[in-house]
Automatic annotation (TrEMBL):
InterPro entries in UniProt: Quino_amine_DH_bsu, WD40/YVTN_repeat-like_dom_sf
Source species, domain of life: Bacteria
Signal peptide bounds: 1-31
Record has Signal as a keyword: yes
Organism, as annotated: Streptomyces microflavus
Protein's UniProt name: Ig-like domain repeat protein
Alphabetized Gene3D superfamilies for the sequence: YVTN repeat-like/Quinoprotein amine dehydrogenase
Keywords: Signal
Keyword Signal tagged: yes
Length: 664
């Protein structure tokens, strides 16, 4: 049955809008989901299966949040100071809530999400946790040293409030109550935070509360209680001992408990008897699921909440922060992180044991020879021998997978099968379990590198040097293969601004050749790629060809041109400064090197060199200033020097020498 809230958790008030992390919906969710919850505390949580709503009370903010099954807030009902416990009517038409700070119980129409009635319980009564039993709405009430149980009879024309229903005055403060439709005359109660814990059971079939069992339990810091659907058992979550205790409601005699872990703080029981047991555990699973009639020592499923705050441990389950969807398809939980931010969590497939499937295979194998694949499937609830698993093989010739049929497990969940891979390369064996009503689906895979023969692939033009802007043909030659005769040719010009590009992809000709023409404006790496096939391994080869730049030097300001011997010279008056204009293929940041040489005694001597930046138009204009000596032959040229000119996208290129002489 529905979990009952024991304490009002308080934390730093941080409000967040609802943001979907993983979506949920009214239909069965595909995976666990979470939303930030705009709440500063948690009082109680209850799920309405008819309208597919979840109601969450927030005592600190004085409001009830109504969400859909994904946790999206659809309505906020405010002005409910200290609102705590929640109870849903049998037909899910009305939600009752104890509003302690205003001394009343409020009724909310679940269809319209509006308040339909308020019932004044009495000044200073502070009603907390309502519970329906014996045809009445019962509630715990009272401040410190004034705890008791009261009832609200709504069967007549006017509501009737009756206080002091526990003549034994069992409770120091307002107790939390729990009931079950399967035992309409039974009401259970406990008191929060007390050590040792106190529990009591009442027979309320007559309209009055008759205490039939009482226990000062060997436990401390009780946080939550729930009654089983048949009313026979009471499950208790106390900070200690470190398991969820179980008692018979007939006499509160202890029975086998649910061995969860340290600091139990929440419990809820689905209508089919499945128990959700929660703990306050930073480094352990937070929620444990036990099906009716199953083991109480081995949960069918565990949930570990993630960490969304600054703590190294997981977010913490809020006390009494669990509620089942009535059909058992989902379990709702409220958690809080180290920053005080609360999350609404939808835990899916809660009654299914999580299956884990492992597969192992040899790392390498020989094509055409049999290999063995092994594995196992395990779950907290063991799968029966003979469980069928589907096997699929994926390889280069069957990229979408080829079914190899099924394999069955043995009594320990192990399986084995053999296969002879027909092709080489990466071969993946995937084994899958489809899942069932009791187990989640699972799959695993293992990859094998199956041998393939080496292929011959060649590419010409490596280390060749070409003039700027020349069209150069590159030819790849592919040797013997099995089925694939396709080669890719990629061109990668030097420089980050020119990405690698596929320039041709086609079958080679009858001689195994495939050619492409590349315009050489930069040094370029051409790569030939063979993707491989079922019997021959992939291969790629590279050829790096080099391209010069376009460079020329023009002399100006001379007064004539004439030959000295066979060489043409520009003649300059010694009073005139020559102007050298260089034109060069432009690249960002590029500079040209201007070199001067002087002819003396039958030999050319270096007269100096210097780098000058190119303009964006590829021009560089340099003036040679005086004084100028007459009668000496001189020459000048412009060069691009790989790296030294500011980049490395072309090969070193020297322009032609230009000759000049100074006269009087």
């Amino acid at each position: 049955m529905r979990t009952r809230r024991i304490s009002t958790a308080t934390a730093f008030a941080v409000l967040f809008s609802s943001v979907v992390l993983v979506g949920g919906a009214a239909s069965p969710a595909a995976a666990d989901s979470s939303r930030i919850l705009p709440a500063t505390s948690l009082g109680d949580i209850v799920a309405d299966g008819v309208h597919q709503r979840v109601f969450i009370s927030d005592p600190q903010s004085g409001q009830i949040l109504a969400t859909d099954y994904s946790g999206k807030v659809v309505r906020v009902l405010g002005e409910l100071p200290g609102v705590n416990g929640l109870e849903l009517s049998a037909d899910s038409g009305t939600l009752y809530a104890g509003v302690a700070s205003s001394d009343y119980i409020v009724a909310i129409d679940t269809a319209t999400l509006t308040e339909s009635a308020r019932y004044d319980i009495g000044l200073g009564t502070r009603p907390t946790h309502p519970a329906l039993a014996g045809g009445k709405l019962w509630f715990g009430y009272g401040a410190a040293a004034e705890g008791n149980i009261g009832s609200l009879d709504l069967s007549g024309e006017e509501p009737v409030v009756t206080l002091d229903q526990d003549p034994d005055r069992t409770w120091y403060s307002a107790p939390v109550l729990a009931s079950s439709p399967g035992a309409p005359g039974t009401l259970a109660a406990g008191i929060e935070g007390q050590s040792p814990s106190e529990l009591a059971v009442y027979d309320v079939a007559s309209g009055s509360a008759e205490r039939t069992a009482y226990l000062r339990a060997d436990a401390s810091n009780l946080r939550d209680i729930a009654v089983s659907p048949d009313g026979a058992q009471l499950v208790v979550a106390s900070g200690a001992p470190y398991f969820h205790q179980v008692y018979r409601t007939s006499d509160l005699r202890a029975e086998q408990g649910y061995t969860s872990d340290a600091y139990p703080n929440a419990v809820d029981i689905a209508p089919n008897g499945t128990v959700a047991a929660g703990i306050d555990g930073s480094y352990d699973p937070d929620v444990y699921i036990y099906p009716k009639g199953g083991s109480k020592t081995v949960p069918v499923r565990e949930y570990e909440l993630p960490s969304t705050g600054m703590s190294s441990g997981s977010d913490l389950l809020e006390p009494a922060g669990l509620a089942w969807a009535p059909d058992g398809s989902r379990l709702f939980a409220v958690s809080v992180n180290s920053e005080g931010v609360r999350s609404f969590r939808v835990l899916t497939d809660p009654t299914k044991s999580v299956a884990g499937l492992s597969v192992s295979a040899p790392a390498t194998a020989t094509r055409g020879k049999a290999l063995t694949v092994k594995g196992s499937i395990k779950a907290s609830v063991a799968l029966p021998a003979g469980t069928p698993l589907t096997v699929t093989r994926t390889d280069v010739e069957s990229p979408k997978g080829k079914s190899l049929g099924t394999v069955k497990t043995d009594a320990k969940g192990a399986f084995t099968f053999t296969d002879t891979p027909p092709v080489g390369g990466k071969v993946t064996y995937r084994v899958a379990y489809a899942g069932s009503a009791t187990h989640t689906a699972a799959s695993g895979s293992a990859a094998v590198t199956v041998s393939r023969a080496a292929v011959s692939l060649k590419l010409n033009r490596n280390k060749s040097l070409h003039a700027y802007n020349k069209n150069v043909s590159f030819t790849a030659t592919l040797g013997k293969t099995y089925k694939n005769r396709v080669v890719e040719l990629w061109a990668d010009p030097f420089g980050a601004d020119k990405p690698k590009k596929l320039v041709k992809k086609a079958k080679v000709n009858s001689k195994g050749n495939l050619s492409v023409t590349v315009n050489m404006k930069r040094d370029t790496t051409v790569t030939a790629v063979f993707a491989g096939d079922g019997r021959y391994a992939p291969k790629s080869v590279k050829s790096t060809a080099y391209a010069k730049v376009s460079v020329s030097t023009k002399l100006s300001k001379h007064y004539k041109t004439a030959k000295i011997g066979k060489t043409s010279y520009a003649y300059y008056s010694k009073k005139k400064n020559p102007v050298f204009t260089t034109s060069m293929t432009y690249y960002k940041g590029r500079a040209q090197r201007l070199s001067l040489e002087l002819y003396y005694n039958g030999k050319w001597y270096d007269a100096g060199q210097q780098y000058f930046a190119l303009g964006s138009n590829g021009k560089s204009v340099v003036t040679l200033t005086g004084p100028h000596e007459t009668g000496y032959k001189m020459r000048v040229r412009s060069s691009y020097v790989n790296s030294s000119s500011g980049d490395t996208v072309n090969s070193t290129t020297h322009g032609a020498w230009k000759y000049f002489i100074f006269t009087k």
